[in-house]
Every structure is written in structure tokens, then in C-alpha cells.
Amino acid sequence: MSIQQRKKMLIVAALLCIGLVCIYLSITESKPSHQNGTTEQAPAAITSDRISIPINADEQSSTQVSETPKKEAAPLLVSIDQLVADYQENELNADSKYEGKSLEVYGMVVKVRKGADGKPILQLRNYFDVDGVIAILDYGEEDKAAALRLGDIPHLICLGGGKVMGRIVVGNCTIKSQPSRAASTRFGWSTDGLRQDIADALGTPDLAPNSSGIESSVQLNAAGQRQVITVSKDCGSSGCSWDVLDEDSRRELIAETGSLHETRRITNGYYDVLVEGKETLTLYQFKGAKYLPTECYRRSDGQFGSLAAQVNCVQ
User: Fold this and answer.
1) Are residues 209 and 231 in contact, defined by beta-carbon separation less than 8 angstroms?
2) Which domains does the chain have, with CATH numbers?
3) Phi/psi of residue 67, each to 5°?
4) What is the mean pLDDT of residues 240-264?
């Protein structure tokens, strides 16, 4: 073999060796390393949905604990009767109690009208003052106000307004609920909770005289015998005091004060009667010689327009 051929063979052998070494190194680098029998894991890629950014303690507490809202005080419940009485007694003291305060007022409607600005206005009366209290309703209460009837006793949520030109005023009023019905506008008795025949009697004409010196004829006897009603004393804010007498014998059948209503129920040949007073409501039945009280009611909270509460009758 010539020297030239030997040189070529050595070059080829050297190139083969270099190639084998490169292949080996590439293989060993591609294999994972092992230590203590565990495989080293490549770090996982970080994505935005796995990033958690903590908030500070103050922010955290504010997001988890919401402030408890303060509970507003309930409106002060007061009747028109009490409101008027307090202002008559001491206007300065009444202003401190009611002016600018949230009130739930109730009284009998005697007038419904529209103000110059279009707001509904109610006139609510009490026992002694026909003018009573002026209630100015908010816009949006027009339909409720239009449904009111004279004698209704609504509950209103209002803001006390003190006295304006000598009149007690409450404003920004909304009608709280469907009003109770007062069948008689004389003393404002509500029919709610009363037995039906008594409630119906409140809506019948008042048979009692309304001034002294008058004698009227009535028929309380179911068989047609007539009676007369005479005024026994002067008339006042509670009505007239009167006597019902048998027309022929002039025997006294009942003596009372206030309004007299006839019911449709008959006891011992005479119609039961209902006497409506300022403080009391009394059902009388004929007991053979005269009328005696059998069912008696007083105002549940002593205020004008309040519901009737049954009590024991005093004979």
C-alpha cells in the first residue's frame, strides 16, 4: 500500500471516530437525568389563569364584610284627634314632637281636593275641630286619593309640617293601606270588625233629633205601633239627649244621647236599635217593658276613627 493510500484511510477513520463521538453526546444529552430514583420534571409553563395576586388585608375585609345598613325608625303613630289636642294645649311642645318628624296619622276624611300644584289634599277631622288637619299627598297618590270617600279613615305616612296660617299641616304623605270605612260621618265609627247587622245599621239614617224643641214620630214596633222621640236636654258636641216614648201611653222606652239607628233584627216585637255616641256604640234590644243594652263597644285606642272594641255593658 502506498503512503498516499494510508493517509486517506487515516483521515476516513478519524472522521468516523469524530462522528461516533458526536452521536453519543447527542444521545446522552437528550435522556432525562435520574437522582434518588426520581425524575426531574421540567418547569410548567405559567399562564394568566393560574396567577393569584393577593389583596391587602383592608381591601380583603371590605370585600368580605359589608356594612350593616341602619334601620330607619318607624313613623310615630298618632291620631288626628291627638294631634289637634296637643297643638291646642301647647303649640311649641307639639312642634318639638311632630314638626319634621315621620308620622303615621289617621283620621276621618271630610274633604278631598286638588292643590294649585296638582297634589291631592285631604281634610281630616277630629271630634272638636271640623277643620282638623290638612294632609298634602305626594305626586303618584292621585288614584288612591280619588278612590277615597267621605267618612273613610285612611292611615297616611307623612312628614309633620307644624302650623301654617293657623292650620295643622302634614306633608309628603302617602296612603299606607286601604282605609277602613266609617259608615257614619257624625262620630267616625269604623265598620271594620263589627258584626254585619251593626255595621249596616251605622249606614242608616239618624232618627235622633238634632236640635231641642223638636218631637218626631218613629216606628220601632214591628206591628206598626208608633213611638215619638223628644229632646230631654240641650244638644252639644255629643249630640242631643233624647227619650223614645210610646206614642199612646207616653211610657219611656229608652233614654240616650247621640245618634239613633234602626237595625233589621226584631226582639220581642220591636226592632233592635243602635245608639252611636262619641265614645260608645251600644246595641239595644226590647226586653218586654223597655230597651236594654245588650252589646257595647268603645274605641280600641280611645281615639277618633279607631276600631271598635267590645266591652261589658253597664245596665
Assistant:
1) yes
2) 76-175 (2.40.50.140), 196-311 (no CATH)
3) -70, 130
4) 93
3-state secondary structure of 63: helix
Segment 200-227 mean pLDDT: 86
Q: Tens digit of pLDDT for each residue in 278-305? A: 889 999 999 999 999 999 999 877 666 6
Quick one: three-class SS letters along 150-202?
CCCECEEEEEEEEEECCEEEEEEEEECCCCECECCCCCCCECCCCCHHHHHHH
How much is the CA Rg of the chain, to the nearest whole Å?
46
Contact 257, 268 (CB under 8 A): no
The continuous run of DSSP H or E covering 278 comes out as none
Q: What pairing do the DSSP bridges indicate for beta strands 76-79 and 102-106?
A: parallel
H or E element at residue 262: strand 259-267
Q: What three-state secondary structure class fits 187?
A: coil
Q: Which of 219, 168, 208 is nearest to 186 (CA)?
A: 208
Question: C-alpha grid cell for residue 275?
Answer: 245608639
| pLDDT tens readout for residues 8-58 | 676 766 666 666 665 555 555 544 444 444 444 443 333 333 333 233 333
Provide the whole-model pTM.
0.51
Q: In angstroms, rounded to a whole number, what is the distance separating the alpha carbons of residues 306 and 302?
A: 7
pLDDT at residue 181, rounded to an integer: 60
b/e map 1-15, b = 16+ CB within 10 Å: eeeeeeeeeeeeeee
